[in-house]
Amino acid sequence: MHATASRRAFAKYATLSFNTDMTLELFVCSTYYFIVQAVTATRNGAWHGRSAENSGREGEAVRTQVGIIGAGPAGLFLAHLLHRSGVDCVVLENRSREYVESRVRAGVLERTTVQLMHEIGIGDRVVREGLVHAGTTLAVNGEPFHVDFGELLDGAAVTVYGQSEVMKDLHVSADRLGIPIHYEAQNVTPHDLDGERPKITWRSQKGVHSLECDFIAGCDGFHGVSRASIPADAIKVFERTYPFGWLGILAEVPPCNHELIYANHEHGFALASMRSPTRSRYYLQCSLDDKIEDWSDEAIWQELAVRIGDSFAPKITRGPSFEKSIAPLRSFVCSPLRYGRLFLAGDAAHIVPPTGAKGLNLAAADVIVLAKALAAFYASGSTREIDGYSARALDRIWKAERFSWWLTHLTHRFPHMDGFDRQMQVAELEYLRQSRAAQSVFAENYVGLPLNA
Ligand code: FAD
Ligand code: DHB
Description:
By secondary structure, the protein is α/β, with parallel strands linked by helices. The chain folds into two domains: 3-43; 53-239 and 330-447, 3-Layer(bba) Sandwich (FAD/NAD(P)-binding domain), CATH 3.50.50.60. It is 40% helix and 25% strand. The chain has 14 helices and 21 strands. The chain has an eight-stranded mixed β-sheet with strand order 7-6-15-16-17-14-18-21. A six-stranded mixed β-sheet has the order 9-3-2-13-20-19. 3,4-dihydroxybenzoic acid is lined by residues 106-108, 260, 271, 273, 281, 354-357. Flavin-adenine dinucleotide is lined by residues 69-75, 92-95, 100, 105-107, 163, 185, 188, 219-221, 224-225, 327, 346-347, 354, 357-360, 363.
């Protein structure tokens, strides 16, 4: 315990003097000084343990190693990984815990994400309640075919387990480990990102607070404050918007198939998914002008039956939806994922269209790489891994962007499409139906590319 505290204090002290030009030699020469100072500081309690409980007093500056903005999947996976490496962090979230837990979003976990849950000690429930899918069905004009991940890729599979369940598991575990999370933090603002002492200020009912950090992790989603705090000329943005949205519903009815069905139909895309053996999740491609009120439950079930086709339509159990929403589709990447001492991860850095369920999984993959880089910095003082974070994460991000973009183009109806475009889609899907090589490529991307982290 004392050793860990000393190590943390040492690392904190070391990073106060860190700058990107610092050489390892200089670092080694300074080590003796740091150790003496760090041990003294630890004895004095100057650096440690002043986070969650003690940060409530107005005006008091609290110090941590990594300040994390956003308690979504990226922020909380990162907090757990840092905690496990003995790196201190504080998480600031502008919504309530209940709100974060109840957001209905992703549903399919790649192997790497499930493995991450095991590694941070929250793997029990996903094993008990998650649905392991070793394949999926695609349909073109109502004619289905099956892609068997397990057979093509040596037992590969994904796990169906809702993002809200992942969030509940992360919250329970954060409570148990004492990871400090401040919910309903208002006006969260990062400062001095290009200096050596960045900080985050926020407001609570008790007043204005300040968190001094070595680094800030911007895990606050697409609309967050982190990316917006970077000067426009310091990052490059790549973007595609799509001329349609997804209408999604949840209904307490059994799914129409034991695995997912991705359907390309002349009317547009449909997806049959699930959350449990008794809870179905369905999506329909819709117009961006559509309003929820335009789609009665009856109209949704009717259109799903048409698009999914005769093989599965009779197996669709209809019932009242208890969640209904429309989401726009977007591809977005910002580069690099770093500005000074701010690192971006998850939706703050990139967005994929939901086709292929990569969003949550990409967020998890980013923070695995980031946590490893930060832990390496605190362990050795070398900046090599944190300097490499952006390039390393972007390499995999672009591949997931490509897959989501490709699958969206393959399965959706675009307004400008003519007969030729439609035949190209059908030909490519027929090729996928018949070619083991094409199915292997699809399966490899769907279950998640290796992390190489
Ligand atoms: P988020 O989950 O967005 O978390 C960011 C957190 O930061 C939030 O809790 C937010 O409240 C907080 N925050 C924002 N601004 C601030 C601020 N200024 N200060 C402090 N905190 C802040 N992916 C799939 O794979 N399949 C799907 O079906 C799917 N459906 C989706 C539906 C919707 C409507 C949306 C928006 C996304 C969907 N996604 C889906 C994407 C997936 O949910 C995300 O990729 C995933 O949540 C990314 O996690 P994250 O932690 O990076 O970002
Ligand atoms: C789900 C969402 C997706 O985007 C997808 O490709 C598969 C499943 C879901 O929410 O269940």
